[in-house]
Amino acid sequence: MDIEKEKIEKLWNKEAYYQLIENAQGKGEESKFFINIIADIINKHNPTSILDVGCGEGGVISDLAQRTSGTRNFSGVDVAAIGIKRSKKKGVTNATFELYDGLTIPFSDGKFELAFSTFVFEHLTKPERVFAEMGRVTKQGGYILIACPNYGSPFFRSPCNKENKTVLLLKRLVKSFMPKFFFTESFCWEKVTPIILDKEDHIIDYDTTIEPNLVFFMKHIKTNPIYEIVEANSFWGNFTYGGVSRAKKIFLETMSFLGKHNFPFIKYYGPFFFILLKKV
Ligand SMILES: C[S@@+](CC[C@H](N)C(=O)[O-])C[C@H]1O[C@@H](n2cnc3c(N)ncnc32)[C@H](O)[C@@H]1O
């Protein structure tokens, strides 16, 4: 195992990390926002078998089990033993939780009608592999949902990315217009070096390993005939921009205005990466 991966796995298994996401799950408006969206999708499409990839300590499944009606079976997988242990302790009667190696989801092909993942993809070392696995375990006609920060957007970046903001913005805008054939092999997301691997004090998203980019991902999906995009959204304007300079706030509000009015590209360059796919 390479050193970086080993360090990341150690990070997921620290008590302090789960303390942090537990607090974020209980109060974080972003987390609640996406749980509500997933609950609506479940109530609309009515999947009976549901998988949460990177379930953490089972908070999302536990909330969804309470907020959705009907008979459903939830399964959660994660690379963190401590997360799985805590998930099991939550006592959700229609859910099972399993530790896995982060690469091969321990279920047979086509087992699930919905496979979702929230706030995990920005932490992956092999996102293409995890996505392929989500596709494999999803039934034909079933759905895949991914939500995470859109850190690969020209207008955002993870706290681990210290590149000059203007250079980053220009580089990413140019990349957005590059022809499709550049994007067939991978998602074309940029890797970053997590900055808290060795520390005990965890700060959300200082553990980012890769910067998801919704536009590149959509280009990738459009080359893949087994998936249909049901919905893609970057949620411009749903959140306020705290802790940024006045100039940046005005800039983001302008982009938000354009994004909300479906301005090409900018529409998908908001703060979040949200995609719902159907396996056809
Ligand atoms: C920020 S937490 C998100 C937890 C939960 N999904 C939520 O929305 O609250 C990131 C989770 O991703 C998990 N993770 C990291 N690498 C993973 C992989 N390859 N496959 C599945 N989960 C992974 C971590 O163990 C951690 O529980």
Q: Secondary structure elements and their pairing?
A:
Layout: H1 3-12, H2 15-27, H3 29-45, E1 49-53, H4 59-67, E2 73-78, H5 81-89, E3 95-99, E4 112-118, H6 127-136, E5 138-149, H7 165-176, E6 190-191, E7 210-211, H8 214-222, E8 227-233, H9 246-260, E9 272-279
Parallel strand pairs: 1-2, 1-4, 2-3, 4-5
Antiparallel strand pairs: 5-9, 6-7, 8-9
Helix pairs in contact: 3-4
In brief, what are we looking at here?
The chain is of the alpha/beta class and 280 residues long. It has nine helices and nine strands.
General description of the model:
The chain is α/β, with parallel strands linked by helices. It has a single domain, classed as Rossmann fold, CATH 3.40.50.150. It has 9 helices and 9 strands. The strands form 2 sheets. It has a 7-stranded mixed beta sheet, with helices on both faces. It is globular, with a radius of gyration of 18 Å. The two termini are 35 Å apart. The relative contact order is 0.14. The protein binds S-adenosylmethionine. S-adenosylmethionine is lined by residues 12, 21, 25, 31, 53-56, 59-60, 78-80, 83, 102, 118-120, 123-124, 130. Residues 51-146 form the Methyltransferase type domain. This is Methyltransferase type 11 domain-containing protein. Pfam families: Methyltransf_11.
